[in-house]
Every structure is written in C-alpha cells, then in structure tokens.
Amino acid sequence: MTERSFRILLLGGDGVGPEVLNEAKALLETIGEPAGARFAFSEALIGGAAIDAHGVPMRDEDVEAALNADAVLLGAVGGPKWDHLGKTERPEAGLLGLRKALGLFANLRPVKVFDALANNSPLKAGVVRGSDLMVVRELTGGLYFGQPSARTTDESGRHAVDTLPYHESEVERIVDLAFRLAGSRRKKVTSVDKANVLNTSQLWREVAIEVSRKYPDITFDHALVDSCAMRLISRPRDFDVMVMENLFGDILSDEAAVLAGSLGMLPSASLNGRPPRRSGTTAALFGMYEPVHGSAPDIAGQSIANPIGAILSASMMLRFSFEMGEAADAIEAAVGQALEEGMRTVDIATSGEVPVSTSQMSSRIRTLAVAQLSA
Ligand SMILES: NC(=O)c1ccc[n+]([C@@H]2O[C@H](COP(=O)([O-])OP(=O)(O)OC[C@H]3O[C@@H](n4cnc5c(N)ncnc54)[C@H](O)[C@@H]3O)[C@@H](O)[C@H]2O)c1
How far is ligand 1, taken at its centre, from the CA of residue 208, in Å? Predict the structure, then answer.
C-alpha cells in the first residue's frame, strides 16, 4: 500500500482539552501504519494556556502553523482562571480568531446514538435508538455578524438591533456542502428555515431548491425551524443531514446533543470547503476538528474525562480531510464495540457500573480499531 503522509497541528488548550487530545493522538499513531498513512504532529498553545505562556490567546505564528497544516485537531479552551479578562483577551478569542483565519464556514455536528447508550438519554430509549444525524451549521454569516448591531438609548427608552443578512453565495456553498455530505451517508437533506416569516429564509429556501437540482439522487425536504425543534426530539430518526443558518444551527445542534446522552461523546468539524494544501484530490476538505464539550474544569486533571468526543473528531478528520473512510469506519465501530463491552467513563456510567479512566477507554478503542482494520 502506498503510504500517504499528513501534517496535523494539535492544539490541546485548557482543562481536559490536552487530556482528551493526547488520546486522539495516541489513536492516530496506532492506526496510521495499518491504515497506510503517516502522521506528523506539531503542537501549539491556544486559549488560557497561550495567555499564561505568551500573553495572547493565540500567537500569529501559531495561526500561521494552522494555515500550513493539513488539518487541525483541538481540545477545548477556557476556564475560571481567565473569566475576568475582556472579550478580546479571553481564551475564546483565540478560537474565534483561528476559525476566522482558516475561513471555516461550515460547522458539522454529527449525533449518533450508540445502541449501548440508548438508555443514557433523558429521552425515551425507543425514541433515540438508531438516531444518526448531522447538523450542518453556517458559521460566518447571519445575526452574529450582521450590521447594524447596536444598543441605543433615547428619551423613549432603550433600543437594540441585530441584523440577519445572507448573500446567495453564502447559502449556496453551505447547502452544496450538505448535499455532498449526504451523498456518503443516507442520502437525505433537510433544509431548516423560517420561510413563512423571514426574507433571509425565503432566499435560503429558493437557493436550496436550486442547489438540490444538481443532486437528483438525494431526497430533499424543508422544515420550519420551530416544528423542526419538536421533531428533532420526538422523531430524531427522521433526519440525516440537516442544514441551516448560524443562529438556528447554534440552537438545534445543542438540542440534538441531548440525544447522545453525554457531551463527552460528541465530535465536531469546521470546514472551509477547500482541499488541504497537499491533498491530491479535490474531494478532501480542509478542517479543524474538536470535541463539542468545553474544558470541563470540574473534572480536569483527574484522568476521568471521556475521550470519545476527541477520538471521534479524529475519525472525522480522517474521513473528511484525508479521505481515509475505512479507518474512520474502523474507529467508529471500535467505539461502538467498547461501549457494547460495557466500558463507561464517569459521564456515561449509570448506577452500578464501575467507570473506567480516560486512558483505559482510549486504549481499548485503539485495540479494537486496529483489529477492525486488519479483519
Ligand atoms: N469549544 C470550546 O473550547 C468550548 C466549548 C464550550 C465551553 N467552553 C469553555 O469550557 C469551560 C467550561 O464550560 P462548561 O462547564 O459550560 O462546559 P463543559 O462542556 O466544559 O462541561 C459541561 C459538563 O459536562 C462535563 N463534561 C464535559 N466534557 C466532558 C468529557 N469529555 N467527559 C466527561 N464529562 C465531560 C463537565 O464535567 C461538566 O459537568 C468554560 O470556560 C467555557 O467557556 C469551551
């Protein structure tokens, strides 16, 4: 097998970030050879760790290193130690600046309910079992960035305004990406909007219909965001790929997270739609990959954090940035097997189950993933 090589920048960040990222790195080191790939890792600081060492939440040279990598794998940033800092000096500013520099416009949050954990969700097991969906959220437009955005006070009282702008090109690139992703999944796209009220949503729907004509083999429907929020927790199996604007995606992706039973289980990817610099094909996408959870300061340093969110983020990186779908499948199957065997970190252990440590969970997944690949 020809060995391909990839350069990965690791940004551990704060709290449990470095702990779970180390496990993702260990997995990649183990799986590289059997999967026919070599990974070269470099590391940099981000968030509170970078503030403590360099006085800024991320140095320009480290942003440059991210731009030169084939993919970026991140832990989490933030913690009470830095909460007193101003908005532009806080750990989160490093992450926001990096996302901007990398031009990441699409946030992907897959939520898969592993059979062994169907009882962990606060929803009924019969409702969530078998759910396997992906929320694709537009990340650079909409209400969070639209102008004017201001607060004023006059003699009549206080006013505030935020603006929700979208250009057709922004809608087209994210909806197109959603269709491409659906092609390698269950071939269904649901576009979420509020087209019965909002002009931006009417534009969104029009453009989504135009894009859908390029993909006749993908089933396509629209959902209004309000009723979609209900369906997401009453009939989650209805959905495969769901695509939506920034604010709707922010809300619905957190709602969807409840299905999986623990934040520690969930991976994410942010993509910019272009191939990594050294990729031989245009199908690969440059991305930054990170677990959905934060730095979990309440359990940091205890070696009990669930590494699965970070491990599945590494698996997404293999699938989307390096076109190593077989290795990604092996990792996902290994996670399912480890859970079937009864391995539980503290966040997913129910009463009577003895939790394993971060490294015990991770080590079992590595063994099972290698076995899967050589099977
Ligand atoms: N992308 C990011 O880096 C990111 C995202 C969210 C929050 N944060 C930051 O993280 C800090 C803590 O925020 P928070 O407490 O609201 O959210 P959090 O996700 O860090 O923790 C929420 C709860 O989930 C638990 N948890 C999280 N990850 C876990 C894991 N891998 N294994 C087991 N349990 C896990 C925590 O112990 C905690 O009880 C804050 O500074 C916040 O700003 C960062």
Answer: 34
